[in-house]
């Protein structure tokens, strides 16, 4: 592999508390659904290799918790991010409505070179539950208005669409799509 080509990508996972950020990362990286420890403070960090075309890249996944609201900590965490995953819970309208704020705050704190084309992704989580409130159509519309952010419906419980979502994110990070 050409060593000049970047192969480690920093991925930030944000969204309201309880939407399933920690569970999604655990499911993707550890292939299991477990009840996360309550009250995790600060940021969890893990890595996962992904095959994209004929390359292997490493995703450095930063799972934030609670304290990301504090400006100082979030700017330290967000700085240098290559991609950002916005998570909400399809059974919580508030968590969906909060996506604008999360996206805007991320851009302010991370200060990417090209905010208009920064690779975001939306994960509509907990689709395994039958008390869904936020419709697929609403999410599509929000993503379309937000400069066509790609969007996947996921469940940390059954793992649906997660591999696909991270593969798409990796391709975006490599700017293959
Ligand atoms: P975080 O605060 O965003 O990190 O959310 P957690 O990962 O801690 O999850 C909050 C709660 O939602 C926990 O009780 C999880 O077990 C549950 N949860 C997370 N993802 C899913 C999912 O896809 N389906 C269901 N049914 N429950 C989930
Ligand atoms: Mg968490």
TrEMBL record:
KW Transport (keyword) present: yes
Keywords annotated in UniProt: GTP-binding, Lipoprotein, Nucleotide-binding, Prenylation, Protein transport, Transport
GO cellular component: late endosome; lysosome; phagocytic vesicle
Source organism superkingdom: Eukaryota
A molecular function (GO) term: GTP binding
GO annotation terms (biological process): endosome to lysosome transport; phagosome-lysosome fusion; protein transport; regulation of immune system process
Keyword Membrane annotated: no
Task performed by this protein: Controls vesicular trafficking from endosomes to the trans-Golgi network (TGN). Acts as a negative regulator of TLR9 signaling and can suppress TLR9-triggered TNFA, IL6, and IFNB production in macrophages by promoting TLR9 lysosomal degradation. Also negatively regulates TLR4 signaling in macrophages by promoting lysosomal degradation of TLR4. Promotes megakaryocytic differentiation by increasing NF-kappa-B-dependent IL6 production and subsequently enhancing the association of STAT3 with GATA1. Not involved in the regulation of the EGF- and EGFR degradation pathway.
Family assignment from sequence similarity: Belongs to the small GTPase superfamily. Rab family.
Name listed for the protein in its UniProt record: Ras-related protein Rab-7b
Organism of derivation: Drosophila ananassae (Fruit fly)
Gene: Dana\GF27158
Portion held of the full protein: 1 to 177 of 211
């Amino acid at each position: 592999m050409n060593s000049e080509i970047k192969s480690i990508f920093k991925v930030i996972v944000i969204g309201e508390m309880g939407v399933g950020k920690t569970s999604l990362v655990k499911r993707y990286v550890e292939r299991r659904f477990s009840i996360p420890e309550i009250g995790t403070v600060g940021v969890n960090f893990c890595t996962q290799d992904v095959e994209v075309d004929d390359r292997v890249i490493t995703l450095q996944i930063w799972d934030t918790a609670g304290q990301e609201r504090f400006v100082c900590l979030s700017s330290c965490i967000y700085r240098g991010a290559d991609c950002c995953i916005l998570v909400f819970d399809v059974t919580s309208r508030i968590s969906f409505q909060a996506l604008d704020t999360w996206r805007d705050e991320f851009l302010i704190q991370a200060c990417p070179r090209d905010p208009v084309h920064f690779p975001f992704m939306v994960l509509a989580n907990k689709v395994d539950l039958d008390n869904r409130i936020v419709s697929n159509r609403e999410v599509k519309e929000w993503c379309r208005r937000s400069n066509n952010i790609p969007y996947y419906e996921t469940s940390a419980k059954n793992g649906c669409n997660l591999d696909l979502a991270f593969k798409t994110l990796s391709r975006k990070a490599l700017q293959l799509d």
